Amino acid sequence: MKFHLILYCSIFSLSIMCPSSSATYPENDDKTPADPYEINSHLFPGINLGNALEAPDEGDWGVTIQDEYFRIIKEAGFQHVRIPIRWSAHAEVDSPYTVEINFTNRIKHVINVALAHDLFTVINIHHYEEICQNPSAHKDRFLTLWRQISMIFQDYPPELLFEILNEPHDNLTPDLWNQYFSAALEIIRQTNPSRTVIIGTANWGGIGALSALDIPEDEQNLIVTIHYYEPFQFTHQGAEWVAGSDAWLGTTWSASLNQVSEMKNHFNQIKAWADDQNRPIYIGEFGAYSRADINSRRLWTGYVVNLCRQYNFSWAYWEFCSGFGAYDRTTGAWNTQLLGALIQTP
Ligand code: BGC
Q1: In contact, 205 and 285? CB cutoff 8 Å
Q2: 39-58, pLDDT tens digit by residue?
Q3: Strand, helix or coil at 196?
Q4: Which segments within the chain are labelled E, that is strand?
Q5: Which of 98, 111, 274, 290 is the most buried (most CB within 10 A)?
Q6: Structural domain count of the chain
Q7: For residue 171, is it within any domain?
Q8: Which sequence positions are flagged as catalytic?
Q9: pTM of the prediction?
């Protein structure tokens, strides 16, 4: 892989302010697959721009992505952003399942701004709840969404990564998921032969379904993503979307011997699988909700980041400026405790 100087502003005809005159990007002229370990080394520190484009409509959940967010994120020391996207709410329900042009343009704009700020950018299909409830009825639509997304972004640089589906669950069982992601991958490869693709696990993206993941041997240009929210009663205490979670309010995380050893145990499980399968790992979501006490959140976040560093896992904190937020968009200030835990000096 070579490094080229690319003038993003001219390439994308951006209607935005360019951060600087030029930036250095790896470019893959000969379309040979990138080295996913090399790409993965750029995916931390990272942060999710959650609760924005994966809401039914951007803004519905309080967050509308502002161009300046990317400057703020970059200046804080992050190298990449993950942008969850609910494509399924912006495409025709029936064949040919065309994605709305205005939505596509909005996504292009957001990605262009992220890349122009030298941030590696992960996009996905997020909150396609219907396919998790009724997989066979939505398979064709899901694959057609990927056909469109792949074509739209086929000429984008390797700093743009595709993640096939956020947290498959329920009726999209581990077995079915193996079939569905392989089919999506085949479609993506028709137009994006060299792009690094990210695949998560079934059963909500956690460690549990890692051993069920069956990735085609000949597909080496992949990164495997795991979401880490353990202990769930701690990270999701008081979360309005988790029934019964008010009862967990007050759960602390103090880095006790047991807590740390449980966390290490989880990371060891991931590492053992990754070594055995020779796949790079991306902790694409982790975070503790704002109703947990800040000291516990800071400690827990710092421990996750440290373990990721030890094990060479990349990561993206969940999330930038909403309920788990490391940044307060109303005051324009970072939560210094969380930011300190995330951006640690080696
Ligand atoms: C979901 C979010 C949720 C977060 C933590 C994400 O995958 O998309 O809605 O807030 O996990 O539960």
Answers
A1: yes
A2: 999 999 999 999 999 999 99
A3: coil
A4: 2-6, 23-27, 46-48, 80-83, 120-124, 160-163, 197-200, 222-228, 281-286, 314-315, 327-328, 333-334
A5: 111
A6: 1
A7: yes
A8: 167, 285
A9: 0.92
